Amino acid sequence: MNEYIPIREVKIGGVVGTGSVGASWIALLLARGIDVLAYDPAPLAEVRAREFVANAWPALRSLDIAHSEVAPMARLRFAGSTAEVAQAADLIQENVWERPAIKEAVLREIDAAAAPHKIIASSTGGIPPSTLQAACAHPERFVVMHPFNPAHLIPLVEVVGGQRTAPGAIEWAMAFCRFIGKHPIEIKKEATGHMANRLQFALLREAVHCLNEGLASAQDIDAAVHWGLGPRWALMGSLLTLHLAGGPGGMKGILDHTGDAIDRWWSALGTPRLTPETRMQLVKAADEVSRGRSIAEWEQWRDERLVSVLKLLQTEPGC
Fold first, then answer.
1. Running DSSP on this structure, what letter comes out for residue 5?
2. Beta-sheet strand order (sheet of 91-94)
3. Which residue segment(s) compose the domain that 51 sits in?
4. What is the structure's pLDDT at 152?
5. Which helix (H) or strand (E) holds 12?
6. What is the sign, positive or negative, of the torsion defined by CA atoms of 216, 220, 222, 224?
7. Which of 74, 86, 259, 270 fits a disulfide with 255 by CB distance 3.0 to 4.6 angstroms?
8. Calpha distance 304→26 (Å, rounded)
9. Are residues 54 and 127 in the same domain?
């Protein structure tokens, strides 16, 4: 780690791409006292980013992450190019579209302009880092730091190194995430979708299969997670949940008692494809579960309630 900028000396965070993920990074960095220099060529990108930060600030305040009453907008500046961000910032976080060719072009520009002691990170949700770092002349300082929506609130960050990432870069990224209040996990092998997305899309895939099979309405499929699986998963993961399901016998007990049934349940899982018909069914399902309320209304509802859940998790570290 000695070859990279000391974490406590990171004064300016660079954010390239200021959609929902990039704007979340901006809000969190500002809340943690780090100035932000951003770039996004999209029309009204700066206006939308500032609106996002202002809307995110109350939740960050409620979690005691942000301490000023209003977002310090003067500490957010927009640059005229990707290269300007890479030259001036102490850390560069890339958040452009999830398309390898687009990311590679942006990362190539960042890598050419950023001094060697600066870490370059990507928010990619599933592109293997070895694919992306191939565009860099200094691939050893490239690492994936993949957050989860809404990224300014959800603590988890997946840290993933590529074949040419230096161990020190991974160590630095893990430490920086902890420094800004995140809960990083190191993904030790590259895989499409990293790991957490694979977990959540395994459930989503089966939800789509249940919808296609007509097992339940869209609202009841979501209710099964909301009222059954979700409350437990807010406190513990799938493996600990299964361990506790075995009672005094724990994991061995549940496998001895139910292992054959679990095998049958796995065998019955579906593999739906996103055909035109399935896409239409999912759009209809979204209308059903959203009950006529707008995305903005649901986002506000989600963030307000996430604050309560996250406060609970802060006070319940586990046994």
1. P
2. 76-78, 35-39, 12-16, 91-94, 119-122, 142-147, 156-161, 183-187
3. 7-187
4. 97
5. strand 12-16
6. negative
7. 259
8. 19
9. yes
Single-letter amino acid code for the residue at 228: G
DSSP string, 49-105: HHHHHHHHHHHHHHTTS--SSS--GGGEEE-SSHHHHHHH-SEEEE---S-HHHHHH
122 contacts 103 by C-beta, under 8 angstroms: yes
> Is residue 71 domain-shared with residue 209, that is, in the same domain?
no
pLDDT-above-90 percentage for the chain: 97
In this model, does residue 137 exceed pLDDT 70? yes
pLDDT at 319: 66
User: Do 132 and 254 lie in a common domain?
Assistant: no
| Main-chain phi, psi angles of 90, to 5 degrees | -90, -20
Helices vs. strands in the chain: H and E counts, helices first: 13, 8
Q: Where are the beta strands (DSSP E) in 162-316?
A: 183-187
Question: Where residue 171 sits, what CATH number does that domain have?
Answer: 3.40.50.720
